[in-house]
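Office hours follow-up: a student asked to see two folded examples consecutively, so here they are.
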Amino acid sequence: MKVSQEPIKISDILKDKTFTVPLYQREYSWNLEQVSDLFYDISESDDNGHFLGSLLLYQTEGSNKMEIVDGQQRMTTLFLLLFSILKSLSNTDKTKAIERINSLLFIIDPNDLSDDVTSSEPRLETGKRDKYLFKAIIRNEDYSAYKDGRRRSHKNLNDTLEFFNQRVQEVIKEQGLNGLTKFAEKVIKSEFIVMTAEKYSDKLLLFKTINARGLELTQGDLIKNELCHDLGAYDIDEAIDNWDEIRSRIEKNGGNLDVFLFHYLNSIDGCQDLRQLLDKKRGVEKWDKKNYPPAPEKYVFDLYGELIIKIGPQKFLEDLLNASNSYSIFINPSNDKVSLNSLKAMGVNKCFPLLLTAIRKLNNENFDRISKAIDSLTFRHSILRKDPKELERFYYQLSETITLDSEVDSIISKIKEHPNFKEEDKFKAEFIIASPKAAVSKMILDRIVRKHSESIDWTNKDVHIEHIMPQKPMGEWDNLFDSDEFEYKDYLNRLGNLTILQDKKNIRARNKDFKDKKEFYKESRLTITKSLVEYNKWDYSEILKRQEYLYEQSKDIWN
């Protein structure tokens, strides 16, 4: 791996080389804030230009074509800036500047003596989705045919170009063409520290490097790149479309692609075998036990490489697409998926590999039974405040036993045998003093409401969680707060101090004395709120009593 001893000027980096943005890189993602930062950093620098950070390249032996491992956002932006300057200098007497910038932006054919730059190829080829638009822009062609208004990257490219065009015109207005030429000199004198890998193994080491303003390469980016290298006869456009569909589906539903890839890998049959094979390649001879998770995060990239080779890229993408559809249901469940919504509220996902296995192998009815059992066990585990790793291991072991619908009763029995269901006294003791996070409290109250065959429209902005003892004490609540501020805050978010109000009543009831709040509570159609009318007063002892009442209401929900 070559590392430049000193920063290298852009004019020297671009000389006699071409650059390409590889498939694993994301589309052009810089917004105007980042573009503006770059412009003014260069503008305000001294005559030697601005230091741009690191540029990480991969160069195959004997080639002048450089693959940009990291730095593609800055490089693309610099090309757009140089093009904007070139366009403003065209048809002026600044022939030397025009010729110099042309030679940096384009591969100049020494036999071509025409002034038409559209016959020249840009030195930078951007990623697949932006390639034709970027090339048309740099060659000053009509690019409307290549512009897709739905693509964020196309909007970013257009916004960046418009921003630079406006700033360049301002420079000309304030400083004239000489001022613009001086600014152009700052641009091409700006410098990178350049790291160049010439071996594929060195290239992999660069993947984890983060640049100053760009996006970190994720496991998903690396796996996408590995997939594209192994495609063979499989159509690369279709493969990239499928991958982008997977990413879009996961992110649109609020998920993280890397987390999904981790969970999916640990849900497939034979993951332990892949891990054993990888360990043997690494020289681990003794392998007499199963590992949980079978694919730890540090092995994910390597194991995906083995998986793609084993089943082929087409089958791999088909399976991953199907799994991403199921996974979207877990991370953003519909209102009728009660157990999955409970898991979402708790913010847990260690059971997702088990759920992926179950939804792949079981019919809908049995999947729902498994989901309910997992919800019950996970909820009890969280209230009992036990180590999440212990439950994660149990779920991985359980996942290996799922094969057929006929065996679901056996799986449910194994869940019922978990110690969490044998500690009812401890579960009750922890429940009646619990102060869950807001999403969990909301979920518990919602489940109790459903138990009474009642319902809540949470999409209604007037539906709120009500603190009976208010968050901002006044009136009768001042005495409790003043006597012990810390005790007040301790009880404030206890489950027993919470209920549900609708139809803007929460706002009107907010800080009133308890006897006045009861007038709002008795109008409610919800049992858990109407029942508050039976209390004569409200203090810490009443909160404990009500929390015990809520335990009695909910213990058979998560039985």
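And the second, which I mentioned at the end of office hours:
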Amino acid sequence: MKQQWLHLACMLVVLSLTHVATAQSGGTCTPGVAAAVLDANNVQATVYNTGSLFYGAQGNSGYEIPRGSGVTSIYAANFWVGGLVDGELRMVAGTYAQGGADFEFFPGPVPPTGAASTDCAPHDRIWHVSDDDILRYEQTGALTADLRDWPVDLGAPVVDGDGVAGNYNLAGGDRPEVWGDQTAWWIMNDTAGPHWYTLTPPIQLEVRVQAFAAACVPELGTSGLDAQVQEAVQNATFYRYQLTYYGDAPLDDAYVGLWMDPDLGYRNDDYIGSDSSLSLGFVYNADVFDESNTLQAQYGYNDKPPALGAIILQGLNNHTGSDLGMQYFISPGRPAELGAVDVVHSARTVYNLMQGLWLGFYPLTYGGNGAGDDLGLGPTKHMFSGHPPAFWSEENIDGHGSRSEPGDRRFLMSSGPITWQPGEKQEIVLAIAWAQTNDRLGSVRRLKQHAAVLRGYYDSLARYDLATCSTETTTPVVEVPDGYAFTVYPNPATDAATLRVHLPISERVTLRVYDVLGREIQTLMAGQTMTAQIIAMPLDIKSWAAGVYVVRLEAGPYVASRRLVVR
């Protein structure tokens, strides 16, 4: 019923459009039908090669967590890109696309210049390889089809074992580059078929996607704050998009975005929010009990409502070395009118939303439902940016404790703008995190802690490593006060690392570094009073010996240690 209603709404919106009502394309391919499942940890996530995540042709939710519970936290998600070529809007986007008809990415690489693709079927595949597959091959010689056919010719990454660049020789020691414990890899483009959703010409993008999951961080143990890192990793999945633009002219004012319909168990009692310091958009339960609706096959989390978030770990690069992160967070259907503008089937509307603009080209404003500047606080980039229950969150939309009406939410997070040159490559990395405590707002706190540690440990997962470790944690995760966060990245590091500290209030801060024998290596701060802020402190480690170090932070009630691996 949900998708039928949505597609009726789509048809009504399309009929009202005044722009050209025919799809524009260089090819006649149909969207792919390939799918793969990530299930290395506490998540079971089904991915597709259509630009859609977790939502396939059958219209089923594909993000189950905890794995095996039958309860899902996301109904659908989709990767969006938009920009202008000589002033003409180009988009690739989608939402539900019943049967896949409206998805705008197609299997395979961008066709050669001037060629029109008519058959994408040979590339309609997602290659899926795990550490277990590789270890089984090394121990017994048994081969999975995807390990055997790893598509190095299409750009799939390979760990070179035979010293010959560009080939794939398993017997000689070459291996697929598995990130985490399990990697799914595919290639897609927006050129080979019609754009029935946005009705724009194709951008001419080729996208190589690496989706992966991990059971743990091998170099960490299972005690104290290490357990918090392991919990974050066990409840997360990652998505790395490598995009190449093959247009003839620059793509100006270009944005990328993640659109999501996050049904957190029972869908009609949700709230959303954002944290720009973490490039995080999230969903949480609006009341203390997440019920079930068995008639609609919606199963809730009962008296322990979790929180789920999407994180832009790496956004568009603006050519000055700056990662733009999450520039905008907005709800395509504002809480007061969910359903009325939920399906955004106009390319201009889609593009506006990626720039933090509503349907009538007016900006997102701070407070209320984000429209009309009811509180006179002016424009903003991030909707519901307060930490709940503070203002401005759905728990407090006016500064006086007024709450939004709970409901079925959507959100869009975007990065940009940049001018994208022909032939230029960009890399976008997304993570989806999930946290559950005995309290719904406690779940939001824990989610933000998870988002912070995933930033610090992403590099540890994003490398070929067959090391294994236990996924069981016997020591309780350490709770920390609201608003504090501490990460060290990249990790492992070689020449330099960055310490990132989020202080919600003014505190006296002490930061010291120790080696594994407990000897103090460096004092970075010693009781220095810092105002509420985000501190990003570079750490020069070029002269340090390879090994494991501990960075210890004391800030008021918050005491935390982070391991830093130097190579």
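Two things to take away from it. Residues 21-432 form one domain. The helical segments are 2-16, 131-140, 145-148, 224-234, 347-354, 440-461.
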